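The methods section describes the discrete structure representation at length, but only in general terms. What matters is that the chain and its backbone geometry are given together, residue for residue. For illustration, here is how one protein appears when written out as sequence plus structure tokens:
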Amino acid sequence: MQLAEFDKFMKELLLIEGIGEIDASLNGLQVSRKNHELKKIAFAVDASMESFKRAKNEGADLLFVHHGLLWKKQQAVTGNFYHRLAFLIQNDLALYAVHLPLDLHPDLGNNIGIARALSLGEIEPFGQHNGIKIGFKGRFPAGKRLEEIVDLLYGRSRQSGVHTLPFGSELIRTVGIVSGGDSKSALQAIGEGLDLFITGDASHEIYHDCLEAGLNVLFGGHYLTEVWGIKQVAEKTKKETDLETVVIDIPTGL
């Protein structure tokens, strides 16, 4: 597959066009390569030197990430930024980033991935961000306890970065989900009378609001709530193209 074909495939698959006005990231191809032929794609959450090196060692031609290098702001090409760009160019490794479209996608996104892992029913958009809803909410057919939900998502061995605020009802029926760093959507969960809010980053700021409103909160860690999308897109790419794919897992514990 040619690089331009891959770009077209991803833009259509992930509905990238039109999201630019509300997304700080530069979605799409961020760094090109001399050889436009692609045979193998690596997928990772973050654009980092570690992910670049692992992608190279895997023999990848392009690295697809959720958090890219370019965020629609001027940045001097110095320090770590210089070294990362230099590594990509010197190793002819292209970089492709998809941020908000990979959070809100109704089939392949981070939030729908969490909702499906929990087997939620009555799923609908939730979590207002710059005029659009980037998360999802749903309902358990039968109520579940907070510890059961943690086990469903992360297994019985609690990983670092996973924290809970058990401030609400013991039997949870309704859940709102916004991956990554959107703790303020907890206020929307309170306003809608949900039993549990799931997000990534822990936040001191919302602690007392949730305590006083009786809202359970699960902080799943930024990385662990945003690894769902890349895994699902990797699987979709493998099924619908002739490209090899590999997922590079570099958990940060945060």
Summary: The mean pLDDT is 95. The two ends are 35 Å apart (CA to CA). The longest helix spans residues 228-240.
